[in-house]
Amino acid sequence: MNTALEAGSMTAGDSSSSGSTFGDPVEPILPAPPDDSCERLHFTEGACSEDPCPPWPCPALDQILGPSWCSLPDGQGHCPSNFDCAAAEADPTGATLVRCLAFNNPCRVDADCSTQSPYCVIDARYSSGSCDHGGIGARCRADDDCQSGSHCIAIDQDGTRGCTDGAEGSKCNFDAECRGGRCAHPTGVAIRDVNNEPRLPVVGICTIGQSRSFCYTDVGICPPGKTCVPSSSSAPCLGDLHCVKANNAVGGLCSSGDVGDPCFKDSDCTSQHCPADVDRVCTAGAVGDPCSDPSDCETGICTPRASLSSPFPMQCSSGEPGEPCVSQADCKSGFCDPRTPGDSRRLCTNRLGESGERCQSDTNCKNHVCGQTQDGMVCINGKVGDLCHEPLWCASGFCVFSSCSAGAPGDRCAEAADCLSQQCALDPQQGISVCGP
Fold first, then answer.
1. DSSP reduced 3-state for 345
2. Which helix (H) or strand (E) holds 87?
3. Nearest alpha carbon to residue 150 among 174, 172, 166
4. How many angstroms separate the CA atoms of 282 and 272, rounded?
């Protein structure tokens, strides 16, 4: 993979950039394995018996495995009676001592080992070693310390060695250690005057490069004053597939951008729809597709799932009658009503609005008038007593004090034009103006 990317989307070799660039891919450099051998503890073996173990030899260390610290649970017949306390105290975690007390099985050749742990693993520092099983993660120093077809690799950044079978998702250092021929690494970083030559991190992940296979993305910010190298010596994904960020912050997944392929953002998809749900896959934005926002849908309507059996909490809706809804905006009819009286769940309905009900267009209303009021758009049916803001909203043609009026004698009025008789006068008994005969 020779794509060279730089912070601020600049390309490698662009002299106008003040930041540093991604360089050509390079191989990781493996550190020497740390001394995790039991041999460094210099065990002295004693006779295995049912008698109590010898006194604990290291007062400075807490006693490990209790009073029977010398009796191994695996029945191999190797029972320590003493060990080098200084070497044990040098291990800050004490993990090597615990492992060796419980499972040390000394050997010089494979023939010294049992069928359960048939590999004699010898560190170059010593003339003898310990038997191990050779399976995934088993301690090793060379490939022949592992089961057939497996490799001995650095399984930690400190160089600790372990066996791997090269399957998809297993640890690796180099492409050749993976069955799919691809070992994806996180981006390597070199720091000026500290580590001037960029190198990949030691441990990578085997990937077959197909859709949904693991990969590391190179896209990101390479800090000023630093140089980055791409994440793998070979393209992490096959063909036209590209590596998109996954929900985890470490790596990504290979994707074609087609419907059903992994994504992290809309631009990862040909359809431009990547709903922020648990699966994070590209969708067509069609009715019934999962969504988290109206922009995830071609219809622009994202509502609660239609049934409890649906695997997604929200899905794209057509807005037609019978579709679930939350508000009127979710329905083409403009009406989102309870499924049954008192039910908190709602459905789009095809009924026509009564006077005063909210609407989106004239077609939502019985009287085919959807008018703007101070409370928003509402249906105007024009019957006497209905809400109005202008005479045209009323069948009678009279809108008096925001209410449709018949304009008949005795009806309230503000001016002569509010009355059929064209007469509007104060009624002393009521204290208001009413239409005259």
1. coil
2. helix 85-89
3. 166
4. 8
